[in-house]
Design goal:
This protein is α/β, with parallel strands linked by helices and 396 residues long. The chain is built from 13 helices and 15 strands. Strand 6, helix 4 and strand 7 form a beta-alpha-beta unit.
Length: 396
Amino acid sequence: MSTLITGISELRTVSELGTIKDAALLIDDGVVAWVGPAAEAPAEASNAETVDVGNRAVLPGWVDSHTHMVFDGNRAEEFEARMAGESYAAGGIAVTMEATRSAGEERLDQLVAERVAAAHALGTTTFETKTGYGLNVESEAEAARVASRHVDEVTFLGAHLVPPGEEADEYLEQVVGPMLDAVKDHVQWIDVFCERGAFDEAQSRRVLEAGKAAGLGVRVHGNQLGEGPGVKLAVEQGAASVDHVNYLSDEDIQLLAGSDTVATLLPACDLSTREELAPGRALLDAGATVAIASNLNPGTSFTSSMNFCVTTAVLQQRLTLDEAIEAATTGGAKALRRHNVGGGKDPQGRPAKGTLAPGAAADLHILDADNAINLAYRPGMPITWQTWVAGKKVYG
């Protein structure tokens, strides 16, 4: 059965079709079949079930390309201390490790399901999430299994931090050996925290090359706490994205602008850690591809609100609304290699994410407003009215 969405005050397709006023959208078998002015709906729309959204704005569902959903435990005290003036260091990750290791698979399943539902209520329709809080073979494998049941793309982040009491190079023997073997059937990507307090350039390269040899795509946490080798390594390795990118040299920006590696901004994390906001304006001006993601995690960004992240990018990082929406939809899809490469398909022939062009996945974020500028104009206000994934309503 097809569904015709009518009553769309503005439809932001995030495609060459642009923004369409007084629009309609036809869904067939979970895929966008047609978009355009409501007065020009095709003949086949007459047989579709009609859903009137009451003069509301519609855009693609958010593509959250960087999250850490598989964890248990709480780091509120660490956050309070940071707000009182203590600086952020990568070592805080270890605090969550014991709680996650002891949680058990059933509880982790429940927690991730709850986090996905909460993000659906905020307009997110596509999710990446990482392992990285168990930091031993058993727990990383458990996290990979859990994540694979709930999200679209799973990343192995055994190289998140060296567990307390272990030595980095010896720990990496586990990461690139038995740990990688244990997770590889449940994940699509490998990632490494290339940062002071975590892993240096040579160690990070070793992790990424092992992942590539196992058939995984590459991602990098880099340049969060200062300028460093993360961006250079990501581009060298053909990474789909390098995430955080708070501190970039001119050379880093030009490397990203000349590559297919997406620079992922994590504004909620920047605020929580009181680091410099990532230079999104400079990256876009140089021609780099930019994504926006939530970085949902227990230590530095305990939020799945992409609405908040988009608002922050507009109000504080000087992106236009169109740029911020594109970064949080198509940009995230590019960071996951789920973007439109023609005919609404992604590079693997699946319905593309992050756009509402014909052939793409019918993932809709319907706002309780007639114009998407209200995301920034009314910061912090509840604005998600309905969320649809593959043509089915999952919230609202």
